[in-house]
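Budget justification aside, the reviewers requested a transparent look at the raw inputs and outputs of the sequence design task funded under Objective 1. We therefore reproduce one unedited record. The lines immediately below are the structure tokens for a 157-residue chain.
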């Protein structure tokens, strides 16, 4: 039995088609996991999965939660889930060629993913590596979370 992970999927506007293609390619692997998506990305992921699922009657359900759009707070919602250890993996197809009006939110999200040691893919190649890892399947993996207690105590002095 494959372990069930919580996978966050996010894509900037110019990268949504790339993420949809990636989801279409990996839909069978994704169906066994819980998916968390921001805004429009969630709608696109759901439509892609519905189209794939309808071609295979054996896969009748998928688990997807849609947050707010990134610029409207979805990035912060996702960051909160990361801080609460509710996200196992982040797939974030970000657009390196366009300025984002919510760039500080994006940086905060990526900072939290790094801080809490969440495996993060920022493009198609790194997403392929993550989803094809044996750790996506039956192998147990517990990420090491750095203890920031001494840092916090030092800040309070």
């Amino acid at each position: 039995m494959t372990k069930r992970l919580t996978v966050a999927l996010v894509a900037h506007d110019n990268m949504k088609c790339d993420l949809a293609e990636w989801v279409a390619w990996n839909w069978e692997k994704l169906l066994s996991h819980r998916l968390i998506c921001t805004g429009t990305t969630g709608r696109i992921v759901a439509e892609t999965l519905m189209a794939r699922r309808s071609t295979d009657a054996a896969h009748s359900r998928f688990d997807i939660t849609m947050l707010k759009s990134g610029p409207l707070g979805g990035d912060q919602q996702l960051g909160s889930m990361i801080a609460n250890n509710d996200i196992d993996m982040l797939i974030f197809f970000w657009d390196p060629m366009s300025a984002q009006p919510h760039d500080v939110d994006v940086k905060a999200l990526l900072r939290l993913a790094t801080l809490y040691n969440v495996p993060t893919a920022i493009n198609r190649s790194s997403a392929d590596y993550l989803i094809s890892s044996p750790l996506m399947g039956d192998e147990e993996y517990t990420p090491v979370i750095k203890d920031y207690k001494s840092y916090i105590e030092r800040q309070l002095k």
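Strands lie at 6-11, 34-37, 63-66, 89-93, 120-121. Helices lie at 16-30, 39-53, 74-83, 103-115, 124-131, 149-156. Computational costs for records of this kind are itemized in the attached budget.
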